[in-house]
Amino acid sequence: MEVTVEELDRAVSRLRARKTASGLDGISGRALVPSLATLGDRLRLLFTSCLRSATAWKEVRLVLLKKEGRAADSPSAYRPNPICVLDEIDKLFGKIVATRLNRHLSRVSPDLADSQFGFRRERSTVDAIMRIRSLSEQALSQGGVALAISLDIVNAFNSPPWDAIRRALAHHQVPTYLQDGIEDYLRDRYILYMGQDGRKIRREIKRGVPQGSVLCSLLWNLAYDAVLRVFLLA
Fold this sequence. Notes:
Layout: H1 5-16, H2 29-53, E1 59-63, E2 83-85, H3 88-107, H4 125-141, H5 162-171, H6 176-186, E3 189-194, E4 200-205, H7 214-228
Helix pairs in contact: 1-2, 1-3, 3-7, 5-7
Domain Reverse transcriptase: 46-234
Organism: Parnassius mnemosyne (clouded apollo)
InterPro entries: DNA/RNA_pol_sf (IPR043502), RT_dom (IPR000477)
């Protein structure tokens, strides 16, 4: 269960090249990375303690994305997919947990559905398009007809019920300590945002995953994995 030097180094290497806004603690990745030469061992102990006690960061800063040319006081002026700005230390911990989850999925339990291309290493939208092209060419070569239906999930990251994530973790036989840690990660979560009067508002959330986290993208994939495994009659 102990977080190793190698795990922390891999997580930091991905953080090093990114220039992102800081979270609630005000510490940017560019400021955090140089300090790890001194704080690395302490962070490993902190992350190991989090895994053992199943505790995680609870608050994120919500940022609304404004559409151009719209009045700021209009609800329609903002995109339906706001982002959550996380603390960089939270991101590091999430990357370590996500790496362990992915390793478990690929080696021990059933992996994610083969038709899932989003948020996965060595897969991209281009691969998904090539899969569709291959299927359509196969159907046409046999004298058949190929039809494609495109669906858009509104508020995709805000919608997954947490019970769906819990069921997926159990189905994939994720180690208990990781299940407990993710359970705590979901429990008592809050978002902070600015109201129209300029005051900070703190609100509890009870579904969805924060957009902008490697771990949360993986949890989204797990929640929707059962949907991609549904057998459709021809």
